[in-house]
Write a structure and sequence with these properties.
With 94 residues, the chain is an all-alpha fold. The protein folds into 2 domains: 33 residues; 33 residues, no CATH class. The chain contains 5 helices and no strands. The longest helix has 17 residues.
């Protein structure tokens, strides 16, 4: 197995211009995958979701009875799913 210093020495031989170009390529790949928009949306949703009645109840229960109790109460609830809507026929009868 190669030593870390050997790998570092090889990397040090790469011209800075090639490293900069590779950094641009990698950053562009992440940008194309939506990294910036995801990073922008995360704090917005986090702020919104912390102030819902469910979140406030979770925080209060965790403070009073512990995080385990809050998680158990949260995970014990059944998830409400929307009923499927009836499909309408696209065929017109006139």
């Amino acid at each position: 197995m190669p030593e870390p210093r050997d790998g570092a020495a090889k990397l040090a031989e790469i011209p800075a211009s090639q490293l900069a170009a590779m950094k641009l390529v990698v950053n562009q790949a992440y940008e194309n995958m939506g990294l910036a928009s995801t990073q922008a949306l995360g704090p917005i949703l986090d702020g919104l979701m912390r102030n819902t009645p469910d979140a406030e109840r979770f925080i209060e229960l965790a403070a009073n009875e512990g995080v385990g109790a809050a998680v158990a109460e949260r995970d014990g609830r059944s998830v409400i799913t929307a009923r499927p809507r009836a499909r309408r026929s696209r065929i017109r009868t006139t």
